[in-house]
Amino acid sequence: MTSHTQIFISAALLCMSPMAAYSKATVHDADALIKSLVEKRSKVEELTEELENKKRERRAKQRAFENQKAQLDAELQRESVRHAQLTEAMQRKKVLIEASKERDAALLPIFEKNAAALKRYVETSLPFRQGERLAEVDLITQKLSGGLLSPRSALTRLWSLIEDERQMAKETGLYRDTVTVYGQKLMVDVVRIGTIGLYFRTGTGRVGLVTRSDSGWTTTFVDEERGRLQINHLFDAFKKQIRVGLFDLPNMLPMPEGR
Fold this sequence. Notes:
Elements: H1 2-124, H2 130-145, H3 151-170, E1 172-181, E2 184-193, E3 197-201, E4 207-213, E5 216-221, H4 225-239
Antiparallel strand pairs: 1-2, 2-3, 3-4, 4-5
Helix pairs in contact: 1-2, 1-3, 2-3
């Protein structure tokens, strides 16, 4: 009995040995499979998270693009409105310019008439800085002819010159100017008495006066002692800024006929 039992157990042990080996292999494979699945799951989760991040980034970029597009659309709309306003303003300006051109065209003959009259006046008035005064009238006329001034602007400047001439008639002052005496041009000190006439003194001390005559303007030296003293006294007073007072001077007003 004992011998049989031992044999049976031995046989059973022999039968169990392959099964035990198979179980160990199966357990090892299962562990490896589980480990692989865990790794793959982890990898899937990483890829899923990465995919979600990319989706979020794409949605953020899309929102940014949409916001930018909305801003551009709004700016385009504002520019369209501004363009329409500018176009309308330009049309109104064109209408005003055309109307202004018509008015200016009507002013052109007025300018030409008054410019010619002012030149005639300067040419026959007191010969004081006459060239400069005539040049100012000519300059305005040239700018008008060259399109640099409109008739309205030219007329405004011409009126300013006329006002200067009126003011000149009211003023008395000490200046430097050129006078022509007996055909000779001299740079002299002058005391201008409005536009009635002027007294002058040369660098050598000779004095004289410019007075109106029947033939225009006459320039003469004053060599008579009393007259020389009177004119020198006038220049000395003006150089001392004494411009108000009673001065005895050689007469520069034309004497009435019969006297």
